[in-house]
Amino acid sequence: MTAIQVRSLSKSFGPVLAVNDVSFDIAAGSTTALLGGNGAGKTTTLSMLLGLLLPSAGSIRVLGEDMVRHRYRVLPRLNFSSPYVDLPHRLSVRQNLTVYGHLYGVAGLKARIAELTDELELGDFIDRPSGKLSAGQKTRVALAKALLNKPQLLLLDEPTASLDPDTADWVRHYFQSYRRRTGATIVLASHNMTEVERMCDHVLIMKLGRIVDQGSPAALIERFGRATMEEVFLDIARDRQRPENPA
Amino acid sequence: MSEVFSPRRVGAMCLRHLYILKGSWPRLLEMAYWPAINMVVWGFTSQFFAGHSTWVAQAGGILIGAVLLWDVMFRGNLGVALSFLEEMWSRNLGHLSVSPLRPYELVASMLCMSLIRTVIGVLPAALLAIPLYHYSIFSLGLPLLAFWMSLMVSGWAMGLAVSAMVLRFGLGAESLAWVMIFAMAPLAGIYYPIATLPVWLQPLAWALPPAHVFEGMRALVFDGVLRLDLLASAMALDALYLSLGAAVFLWSWHGARTRGALLNMGE
Predict the structure, then answer these.
(1) H or E segment at A80?
(2) Which of A82, A150, A190, B144 has the fewest Cβ atoms surrounding its Cβ within 10 A?
């Protein structure tokens, strides 16, 4: 089953073509990474998948719905997290979760917040203002907000950016466990190749607004004759040692 | 599938702002502070003019009533714009935009919060005027409700237009929330009849709802006449401007989706 179907997707900002005729499918229940250097078009693509940005051309179907025309049918079933988008700083963690819980129409909200507080170990700072938390604590709060509605689709922009290795490892482990338990689809944009190797079934590599390669991390590593995804990424970024028959 | 209009989501957005107000007494104090100071200053001015102006002497408190009603419009505008600016300051717009909250529900919550902020801001000043100057704006009776509503709706329309500009031009435009409404003040006839204005400016003044409201208030206070024609024209103009304000805001929201501004807007 397909969770996301993208066809001939393009986005231009004036003369700049940020995403250029991109097509791909993302299988339901998979974890897929969008990789690429700065300016490759990852965040633009992610924004279009979320319906935050209107495409210049092409179509996007998310969980069976046209994302341009019927995004409000899908939004209650997906969620999103990014280190570059905050929750209101002056509200406590509990207040933020309460507000978003009501926005998403979460049934049994108090119990759901208690459950997430327990799972994500928010207890020590649940009543502290969100703006006064450490980066690791903020990430866990953002995660709690992203999981409030038990989303079928999670879109994550650099989920472990600016986290220490221990917290980053904990976050990755949590996402893997969430996917196993719920069968949710996860799409992430990341610069962390270790993370991608560990978490993802499928990788879409973007460069200059196009998808230049795709496959599982293992298949890409094998095809490029490299030892790690980081080496594959550098080969693509620097136009080195292209495989003869890319997928 | 999410409902087309959800009072629950509107309530959630109001709750978000009420949490902030509940947790910050300086904010509550600040909201009531300026209207009270304004009223005190105009109260003394009224007392002075009462002995030196036959016009003011005819109706004690006319200037206090006018300043309180002007504050309703000012607070109405600020209440809308501040609710929106809060989202920009906290870089929360991205999360809201991917939630099931619809743009017009966001607008509805901004209007609700404006009503609450206006009551918190203006009511203490109105009550304070009673012991200080023996003037009760509530003596206007039921028409006061109509004046209040009309001026607040005018403030809402301007607040939505300001929010649209902030959405389009970024936080550099935020000072408009405080200053833009004052462009209307000379034409609104807050403290003087519209006939005082140069003849060529009067049609412009009559195109604005507050001119009808303040003229109506003076007719009620000086002549004891409720001018329903003025109220009706104020309401009709309010409906027009509010529709325009909402349309400009929603158009600006659509523009932000085209430009990709919703994800990275903020301080």
Answers:
(1) strand A78-81
(2) A150
